[in-house]
């Protein structure tokens, strides 16, 4: 028996526990309320198979296929045109469609079993966390809970319930009693305490700020004023409790052999850059943009506690952006550990060389630096606050120190120009020795809370809920507008021929980088006044290059981006002599002609990576956790043929 069941429905990731539910369980424990975190996402992955689960949750995520598989049981009387829906998904094969229908049928039976299993625990409250593609599964479960046990209180929270979306959820689905919007660390335990004492009939004055309930159904509520909870002092929140995840995974024999778990952890909330200048496409953080950070002591203590408790040293930091103060306070303590952590962080790309080195030394070998393009004008449209050359500089230093970088080309921006892509394609071949984008290209998606959504008129946009929602929910257009997170632009899709050219080039870049002999441009020798470079890029002018004298000095100083004026000043101050522009110009021009220095908008950057280059870690080591899909498929085939041989003796 438990007071509260906290439930993580499909299609949450299999390879790591839920940070949100881990925090809520710990908070409830501190408040003296008994709770259990359940992981039906793991059980469903066992049922449909790892391969199907990954294809639906990742490969087909852009088309909300995971939501479709549970929409039927969530809304049994809703029959959209499924053939039309499948036509919205490009290159979908008939065999895949049949398999998706099988998964959808399994989803209905799965919900029935899950509801009965949860009610066997005799909870008084059942709460689902809904982020991205868990909404229909969560609504389906809570609906069945209500039908089987009307006395049980139902709650939803998570990113899909932020602000107006949470209020829309409450008003559209009467089997949901309460919806929590924003950060639930403080308000959820307060809500549960009141519900356990009083039941579901709480009036507006009794609801913690950030919670909407039945009282909001009876009143005219301005959607734009939907409440959102926020925590001010992050040092006061609990350390997440992941016990239930690791126990559940251990008892999943069809999953455990193929999963190397990672763990979520957070060191800050909000975005300090977004407070200054909100990136135009970014819909993260919602109304919680205000930046707050944990103290260095709390960060170190939390990492240490989680590592000891679960025997894990892989940490995926969920922060929207790294607190730069932690580079000098937290990271040196991590670097001093005998056994290093493996850490993922998000940051801005305008880091200094020493900061990148400090990250690597502390175990931050996985980085998402917000590189979305390699053209200053495109970056300006996004309000990224960095330049293309800064992005190249970061990729160069990350390659030297063995940091895996996750980045993308966003295309289809309002106001973009095809000429900008042509200009990029002229010099991108110079950087094929650096890490390519994670994806070929990514077409701009318009999300709620982003400046593109909030200020549509300013950007010449008319946005409507993504078409897919109409195949998932039996709601009218006005209600869908409040429920949706992703939106389509009215009119023709923003595609130009240059997008395809860029996509083809990135595909070739990825192929080269993953080949047995990837291209290199490296400083093989540097004796202080002379260096030797080796260049095996397809664009190489010479395979071996020697630099000395002024050319050497220019190349060394341009390890970081410099204007011509800054370069002259550095040379004169550092080397103690006067050098004129007439002397430096032919040297720089020769380096540019050799394609070992890049000039963009009046700034220079040397492109060679210094040896020794630290190897990138294997994908199996990533802090987010790893699922061995290939191993699972291989073993499944072996098991099938073993069964076949037993049934059909030779």
From TrEMBL:
SMART domains: Elp3
Keywords from the UniProt entry: Iron, Iron-sulfur, Metal-binding, S-adenosyl-L-methionine
Recorded GO MF terms: catalytic activity; cobalamin binding; iron-sulfur cluster binding; metal ion binding
GO cellular component terms given for this protein: cytosol
Signal peptide: none
InterPro entries referenced in this protein's UniProt entry, alphabetically: Aldolase_TIM, BchE-like, Cobalamin-bd, Elp3/MiaA/NifB-like_rSAM, rSAM, rSAM_ocin_1, rSAM_sf
Cited Gene3D superfamilies: Aldolase class I, Cobalamin-binding domain
Domain (B12-binding) ranges: 111-202
Alphabetized Pfam families for the sequence: Radical_SAM
Entry cofactors: [4Fe-4S] cluster
Residue ranges occupied by any Radical SAM core domain in the UniProt entry: 257-472
PANTHER family: ANAEROBIC MAGNESIUM-PROTOPORPHYRIN IX MONOMETHYL ESTER CYCLASE-RELATED, BLL1977 PROTEIN
Protein name per its UniProtKB record: Bacteriocin maturation radical SAM protein 1
């Amino acid at each position: 028996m438990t007071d509260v069941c906290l439930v993580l429905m499909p299609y949450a990731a299999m390879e790591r526990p839920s940070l949100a539910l881990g925090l809520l369980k710990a908070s409830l424990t501190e408040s003296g309320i008994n709770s259990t975190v359940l992981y039906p996402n793991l059980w469903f992955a066992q049922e449909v198979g790892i391969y199907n689960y990954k294809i639906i949750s990742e490969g087909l995520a852009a088309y909300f296929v995971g939501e479709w598989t549970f929409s039927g049981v969530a809304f049994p009387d809703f029959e959209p045109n499924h053939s039309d829906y499948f036509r919205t998904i490009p290159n979908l094969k008939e065999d895949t469609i049949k398999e998706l229908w099988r998964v959808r049928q399994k989803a209905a039976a799965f919900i029935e079993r899950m509801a009965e299993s949860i009610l066997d625990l005799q909870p008084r409250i059942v709460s689902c966390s809904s982020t991205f593609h868990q909404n229909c599964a969560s609504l389906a479960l809570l609906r069945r809970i209500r039908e089987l046990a009307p006395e049980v209180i139902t709650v939803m929270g998570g990113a899909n319930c932020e602000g107006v979306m949470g209020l829309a959820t409450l008003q559209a689905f009467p089997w949901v009693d309460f919806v929590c919007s924003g950060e639930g660390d403080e308000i959820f335990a307060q809500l549960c305490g009141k519900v356990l004492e009083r039941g579901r009939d709480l009036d507006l004055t009794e609801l913690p700020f950030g919670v909407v309930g039945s009282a909001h159904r009876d009143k005219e509520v301005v959607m734009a004023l939907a409440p959102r909870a926020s925590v001010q002092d992050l040092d006061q929140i609990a350390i997440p409790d992941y016990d239930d995840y690791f126990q559940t995974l251990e008892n999943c024999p069809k999953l455990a052999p193929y999963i190397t778990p990672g763990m979520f952890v957070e060191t800050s909330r909000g975005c300090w850059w977004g407070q200054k200048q909100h990136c135009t496409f970014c819909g993260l953080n919602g109304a919680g943009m205000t930046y707050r950070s944990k103290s260095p002591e709390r960060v170190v203590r939390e990492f240490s506690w989680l590592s000891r408790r679960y025997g894990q040293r892989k940490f995926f930091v969920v922060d929207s952006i790294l607190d730069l103060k932690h580079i000098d306070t937290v990271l040196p303590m991590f670097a001093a550990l005998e056994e290093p952590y493996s850490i993922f962080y998000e940051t801005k790309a305008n880091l200094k060389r020493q900061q990148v080195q400090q990250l690597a030394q502390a175990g931050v070998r996985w980085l998402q630096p917000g590189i979305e393009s390699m053209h200053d004008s495109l970056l300006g449209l996004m309000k990224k606050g960095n330049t293309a050359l800064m992005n190249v500089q970061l990729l160069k230093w990350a390659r030297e120190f063995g940091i895996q970088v996750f980045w993308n080309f966003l295309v289809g921006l309002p106001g973009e120009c095809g000429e900008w892509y042509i200009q990029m394609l002229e010099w991108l071949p110079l950087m094929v020795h650096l890490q390519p984008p994670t994806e070929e290209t990514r077409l701009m998606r318009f999300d709620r809370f982003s400046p593109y959504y909030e200020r549509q008129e300013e950007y010449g946009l008319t946005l409507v809920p993504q078409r897919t929602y109409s195949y998932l929910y039996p709601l009218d257009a006005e209600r869908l507008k409040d429920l949706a997170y992703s939106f389509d632009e009215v009119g023709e899709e923003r595609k130009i021929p240059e997008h395809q050219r860029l996509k083809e080039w990135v595909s070739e870049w990825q192929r080269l980088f993953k080949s047995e002999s990837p291209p290199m441009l490296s400083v093989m020798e540097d004796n202080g006044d002379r260096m030797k470079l080796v260049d095996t890029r397809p664009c190489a002018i010479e395979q071996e290059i020697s630099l000395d004298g002024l050319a050497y000095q220019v190349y060394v100083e341009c390890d970081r981006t410099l204007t011509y004026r800054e370069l002259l000043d550095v040379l004169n101050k550092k080397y103690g002599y006067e050098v004129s522009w007439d002397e430096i110009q032919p040297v720089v021009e020769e380096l540019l002609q050799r394609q070992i220095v890049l000039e963009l908008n009046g700034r220079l950057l040397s492109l060679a990576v210094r040896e020794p280059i630290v190897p990138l870690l294997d994908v199996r080591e990533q802090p987010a956790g790893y699922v061995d899909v290939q191993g699972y498929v291989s073993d499944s085939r072996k098991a099938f043929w073993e069964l076949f041989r037993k049934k059909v003796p030779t």
